[in-house]
Design brief:
Layout: E1 8-14, H1 20-30, H2 36-48, H3 64-69, E2 76-81, E3 86-91, H4 99-106, E4 111-117, H5 124-135, E5 140-146, H6 155-169, E6 176-181, H7 205-209, E7 224-226, E8 229-234, E9 248-255, E10 261-262, E11 266-270, E12 274-283, E13 286-288, E14 290-291, E15 296-301, E16 312-315, E17 321-332, E18 344-348, E19 351-364, E20 371-373, E21 383-396, E22 407-412, E23 417-424
Parallel strand pairs: 1-3, 1-4, 4-5, 5-6
Antiparallel strand pairs: 2-3, 7-16, 8-9, 9-15, 10-14, 11-12, 11-16, 12-13, 12-15, 17-21, 17-23, 18-19, 18-22, 19-20, 19-21, 22-23
Length: about 425
C-alpha cells in the first residue's frame, strides 16, 4: 500500500453543536500539538466559563461572538503535524446562513470530515454539506458519527446512520466514503482507539488522515501558472548582497496552480499564444531547477513576450480552454436574489472579468439530488447550472480536471460583495 506524506488539507463540517470544534481541539491536544502556554490558556478559559474540565472547543472558537453564542461563525484554520505528515484543518461553521464559509474552507480541501450527532442521526445540513463537499471537488469524505458515548456506544445505532449515509452518498461520486464512530469529548477514535468501541475495526481518524492521498498525489496535471505580477528591476536598484547580477531583470511572479515548472521547458502564454523557454526560476532563497504545485516563484523567460497580470503560462500539451461562453454550477451566497442580465464580476484566481448570466438551466435540490428545470431566480444557498457570457476571453479548465483554474467567485460590483461561487462544467 502506497504511503502518502504530503501536506493534507481537510475540513470539519456539520450541524451546530455536533462537536466540530471539540473534535479539532481533541485532535490537537491528544497528538501533543499544543504548546504548554496554549494548554494553560485553555484551562484558564475553561475555569472562567465554570467548567472543571478543559473545554477543547475554545481552541478554535476564536471570535468573541462565537464564544458568547457558543457556536462557530468564521472558518478557523489550524496547522499541525505528526511524525508522518503536516496538516491544515479548516473548521467551518454549521449554521445554514454561513454556508459560504463552509464552501470557502472546502475549496482547497482533500478530505471532508462531516460530523453528525449519534443521537440525532443525519440532518438536512448533513446532506447539504455532503453535496457541497462533492460539488466543490473534495474526493473523500468521512462521516464522523460523534457522541457515541451518549448512545451507550451502540453498534446498531452506528450501523443505521452509516447505512443511511452510504445510500445518500453513493450517487455523489466520492472516491472514498468512510463512516467512523467516535467521541470527540472523550477521545475515542480521534488519535487513539479508546476502550469503548472495540467492535469497530476501521482506522481512528488521525490514522486515516495520515494515510489518505492529498490533492496533488494522484493526478498527472498539466502546467498552470497564473501570472500574478510582472516585476522589473535594475542592478543599480537592488539590495546589497542580492543574487541579482543582470543589468535588467524582467520576471513573472505567481503560484504554480498545477503541474511543474522546469528550467529549459517551453511554455505557452495565454491568451496571446506566445511561446518562450524558462530561463530561471527564482525564490527569495535563491534559484530552483524546478517548482511543484503550490510553490510561489518568480519566472524569467529566455525572450521578451507580451505578458500581463492575469495571463497564464501553460504547457504546450494539455492546453486549457479559452472562451467567452461558459457553463457552470453556481452556489448563490447573497441574501439578494440573482439578477439576470445584470453585469457581475467573475474573479478566477488573479484574473477578473465582467460577465452576465444568460441562462439558468436547472436548480439542484440538495435534499433529494433532483434537478428542477428552468428556475426563474436563485435565492441564498441555491445551487444551479447556469450559462455565462464574459466580456473578455477567459482561460479555464473544467473543474473536474483542475480545481484552481476551473473555479471562480461572483462579485456584485455595486456592493463589492462576494455573492456566489462557481465551478465550470
Amino acid at each position: 500500500m502506497r504511503t502518502h506524506t504530503g501536506l493534507l488539507r481537510f475540513i470539519t463540517a456539520g450541524s451546530v453543536d455536533d462537536g466540530k470544534s471539540t473534535l479539532i481541539g481533541r485532535m490537537l491536544y491528544d497528538s501533543k500539538s499544543l504548546l504548554s502556554d496554549q494548554v494553560s490558556a485553555l484551562e484558564a478559559s475553561s475555569r472562567k466559563r465554570g467548567s472543571s474540565e478543559i473545554d477543547l472547543s475554545l481552541l478554535t472558537d476564536g471570535l468573541l461572538a462565537e464564544r458568547e453564542q457558543g457556536i462557530t461563525i468564521d472558518v478557523a484554520y489550524r496547522y499541525f503535524s505528526t511524525a508522518k505528515r503536516k496538516f491544515i484543518i479548516g473548521d467551518s461553521p454549521g449554521h445554514v446562513q454561513y454556508t459560504r464559509n463552509m464552501v470557502t474552507a472546502a475549496s482547497t480541501a482533500d478530505v471532508a470530515v462531516l460530523l453528525v450527532n449519534a443521537r440525532d442521526g443525519l440532518q438536512p445540513q448533513t446532506r447539504r454539506h455532503a453535496f457541497l463537499a462533492r460539488w466543490i471537488g473534495i474526493p473523500r469524505i468521512v462521516l464522523a458519527v460523534n457522541k457515541m458515548d451518549l448512545v451507550d456506544w451502540s453498534r446498531a445505532r452506528f450501523e443505521v446512520i452509516d447505512s443511511e449515509f452510504q445510500a445518500f452518498a453513493s450517487s455523489l461520486g466520492f472516491k472514498g466514503v468512510l463512516s467512523m464512530p467516535m467521541s470527540a469529548l472523550l477521545g475515542d477514535m480521534i488519535v487513539g482507539r479508546g476502550e469503548s468501541l472495540g467492535w469497530y475495526q476501521g482506522p481512528a481518524l488521525l490514522e486515516y488522515l495520515e494515510s489518505v492521498p492529498a490533492r496533488h498525489d494522484e493526478a498527472s496535471e498539466s502546467l498552470r501558472f497564473p501570472v500574478q505580477r510582472v516585476v522589473r528591476a535594475r542592478r543599480d536598484n537592488v539590495q546589497k548582497g542580492s543574487w541579482f547580477t543582470e543589468d535588467e531583470f524582467r520576471g513573472y511572479q505567481g503560484t504554480v496552480a498545477s503541474g511543474r515548472l522546469r528550467v529549459g521547458d517551453t511554455i505557452v502564454s495565454l491568451p496571446s499564444g506566445a511561446q518562450a523557454k524558462i530561463e530561471e526560476i527564482v525564490t527569495a532563497g535563491g534559484q530552483l531547477d524546478e517548482a511543484p504545485a503550490d510553490r510561489a516563484v518568480t519566472v524569467r523567460l529566455d525572450r521578451e513576450i507580451d505578458v500581463s497580470r492575469g495571463d497564464m503560462f501553460v504547457s504546450a500539451e494539455g492546453k486549457p480552454k479559452v472562451s467567452q461562453e461558459i457553463e457552470a454550477d453556481v452556489c448563490w451566497f447573497d441574501a439578494q436574489p440573482i439578477l439576470i442580465s445584470q453585469p457581475y464580476l467573475i474573479k478566477q484566481g488573479v484574473n477578473s472579468v465582467r460577465a452576465k448570466f444568460v441562462g439558468l438551466e436547472h436548480r439542484i435540490d440538495v435534499e433529494t439530488l433532483k434537478t428542477i428545470p428552468n428556475p426563474q431566480t436563485l435565492e441564498m444557498n441555491d445551487i444551479a447550472r447556469v450559462k455565462l457570457k464574459t466580456l473578455k476571453p477567459l482561460v479555464f479548465d473544467l473543474y473536474e480536471e483542475n480545481r484552481v483554474t476551473g473555479a471562480f467567485v461572483v462579485i456584485d460590483e455595486r456592493s463589492n460583495h462576494t455573492v456566489g461561487a462557481g465551478t465550470i462544467r
